[in-house]
Amino acid sequence: MDKFENYLSLTRDERMQFLKDSITELYPFTDDDIELYNDKLDFNILSYNSRIKWSYLLLEKYRDKWDWNSIEQNDIISRNFNLALLFPDKVTSSLSKCDCFRNLDFCENLDYHCEKFEKPVAIVSRGIIKDLYVYRLMDYLINEKIINDKALLMLYLLDRELDFVGKQDH
Known about the structure:
- This protein is mostly helical.
- The chain contains 10 helices and no strands.
- The longest helix is centred in the N-terminal third of the chain and has 15 residues, at 12-26.
């Protein structure tokens, strides 16, 4: 059975949407990229992206566009920012009173080794991964920089399809 059989059985529109969603989640967009393409990006999916160089300024700038449930589940963000302190009106997590020797008003120790810090459990509720092989391939191609920026932009912005083909019987 061909690994990409499920992917290839999708309609062209479904394949394009899948590839666009994968790029949005996997590509290391810069602040400038997000600024330039903010009207074309799906911020619900972008909120899952762990390859963005996240900053308070970036979170604040697009405060009303992020999917805050996804932001809370994004391990890179929750490890580096106390979201309950910075965005109490947007997140469901709450400040937990520090009960270690520090006796702080709230716990801001985001280190994984702190036994007192309760991180949100990452549960991805999206069902967009229609073919895990294609998703992993996109992850690999982007991570290894095998697909260049122009190819990704062509795919994402110009709605051009990449062909994922294996050996074909003739």
